């Protein structure tokens, strides 16, 4: 990725776009896709000189503050009906019609990753089939009608509206759809995903990709994979837009971290950090095995701290973590508040992320920006993010190699200091501001696609 040029896109566009973003990924706990959606949408709201931006939650169009409040409600709760676009403000004067509560509940029951009702009922053949039918009804009919009503009220050549799905699969298709496809781990490593997630992605992503006007991917690696898997896709419509890191991810002194570390009973620079959901793709099995091979004195002086929510297929991982916690050299903190995470990064002695597959690798970037030496792997997109600023293992499952890398960074402070300096330089190549600017460019192209389509009718 070329060096960031802050002046390259400072000139305002000729026309102000209207953009609707699907906000369902904002539901907590927010991991990679949720963080991406939040950081992107929060900054898009500030670009009011460039776009009129609204977030779609169920059947409602709203601003970010309202969307975050909405996520506190259960997905099954009937949404309150709001109203549609006005020209220059966030007041909505005409009701959105055509989305029914049954369809919304069915969609999120059949497809969301966090619905207990889906897990309970979706596996029952008769009920599961009915849920999927209702879901399809909502996705392809009612939801689409809501967006179509917006379109009907606007002269497309003057005021185009773009719909952005930031989380793989759109609930309905739109003529000017922009979708973000984060990775293809569900294809490359099907055995590492729950059945429900495989069904959701398999059934929905192909339709979404083929129906999209423009596709955003976070890395050149993911772009290559997409074009290999969908060879008929026009390469010029697939755009690489890297992620960023928030300003809170920065180096900190021991004094700055003292209070938060006291809350977690941790010592500055005296723990090894992992951040990520507890799921097989993150390769915690190898990390735990590597830690077991370290000398006992090292493990007690430099415990392994695990931060992240429960994922899927994690029973074996949790059992191993609990066994090692009893022995005193592993600490599992679970999902931590967003204000605590940057401190935990910057106070770590090193960050270890032996992932098997990533579409980007946001935790690696956050660690680099926090001034922490990083150990990861050469898997998938990680070399694009880490550059030469991390120790990268050729084989993610090399237990001995990972243990040796952990020891090397601890035993060679000059090497660790060099990695920190390189990491800070590498992290400056990525920013959420750049992500927003390049995403706006993609929106503009999608709007031009729509205008061209209308002019040919």
From TrEMBL:
Keyword Transmembrane attached: no
Coiled coil: none
Keyword Transferase: yes
A molecular function (GO) term: glycosyltransferase activity
Keywords: Glycosyltransferase, Transferase
InterPro entries, per the entry: Glyco_trans_1
Gene3D superfamilies in alphabetical order: Glycogen Phosphorylase B
Residue span(s) of domain Glycosyl transferase family: 271-423
Pfam families the UniProt entry points to: Glycos_transf_1
CDD domains: GT4_MtfB-like
GO biological process: lipopolysaccharide biosynthetic process
PANTHER family: GLYCOSYLTRANSFERASE WBBK-RELATED (PTHR46401)
Protein name as catalogued: Alpha-1,3-rhamnosyl/mannosyltransferase
């Amino acid at each position: 990725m070329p060096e960031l040029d802050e002046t390259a896109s400072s000139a305002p566009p000729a026309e102000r776009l209207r953009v609707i973003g699907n906000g369902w990924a904002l539901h907590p706990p927010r991991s990679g896709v949720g963080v991406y959606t939040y950081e992107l949408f929060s900054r898009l709201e500030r670009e009011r000189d460039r776009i009129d931006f609204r977030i779609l939650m169920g059947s409602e169009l709203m601003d970010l503050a309202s969307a975050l409040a909405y996520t506190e409600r259960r997905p099954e709760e009937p949404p309150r009906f709001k109203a549609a676009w006005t020209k220059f403000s966030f007041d909505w004067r005409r009701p959105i019609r055509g989305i029914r509560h049954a369809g919304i509940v069915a969609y999120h029951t059949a497809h969301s990753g966090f619905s207990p009702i889906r897990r309970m009922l979706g596996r029952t053949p008769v009920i599961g089939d009915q849920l999927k039918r209702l879901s399809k009804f909502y996705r392809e009919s009612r939801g689409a009608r809501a967006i179509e009503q917006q379109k009907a009220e606007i002269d497309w050549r003057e005021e185009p509206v773009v719909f952005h799905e930031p989380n793989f699969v759109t609930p309905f298709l739109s003529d000017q759809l922009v979708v973000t496809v984060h990775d293809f781990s569900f294809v490359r490593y099907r055995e590492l995903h729950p059945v429900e997630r495989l069904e959701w992605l398999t059934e929905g992503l192909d339709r979404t990709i083929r129906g999209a006007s423009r596709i955003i991917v976070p890395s050149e690696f993911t772009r290559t994979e997409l074009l290999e898997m969908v060879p008929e896709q026009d390469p010029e419509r697939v755009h690489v837009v890297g992620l960023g890191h928030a300003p809170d991810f920065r180096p900190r002194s021991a004094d700055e971290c003292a209070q938060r570390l006291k809350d977690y009973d941790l010592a500055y620079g005296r723990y090894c950090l992992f951040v990520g959901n507890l799921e097989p793709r993150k390769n915690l099995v190898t990390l735990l095995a590597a830690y077991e091979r370290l000398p006992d004195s090292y493990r007690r002086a430099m415990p392994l701290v695990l931060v992240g929510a429960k994922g899927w297929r994690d029973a074996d991982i949790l059992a191993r973590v609990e066994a090692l916690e009893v022995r005193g050299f592993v600490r599992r903190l679970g999902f931590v508040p967003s204000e605590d995470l940057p401190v935990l990064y910057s106070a770590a002695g090193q960050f270890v992320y032996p992932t098997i597959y990533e579409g980007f690798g946001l935790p690696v970037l956050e660690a680099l920006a926090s001034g922490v030496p990083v150990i990861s792997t050469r898997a998938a997109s990680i070399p694009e993010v880490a550059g030469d600023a991390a120790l990268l293992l050729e084989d993610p499952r090399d237990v001995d190699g990972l243990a040796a890398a952990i020891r090397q960074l601890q035993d060679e402070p000059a090497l660790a200091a060099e990695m920190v300096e390189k990491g800070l330089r590498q992290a400056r190549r990525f920013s959420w501001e750049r992500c927003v600017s390049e995403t706006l460019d993609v929106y503009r192209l999608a709007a031009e696609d729509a205008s061209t389509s209308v002019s040919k009718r």
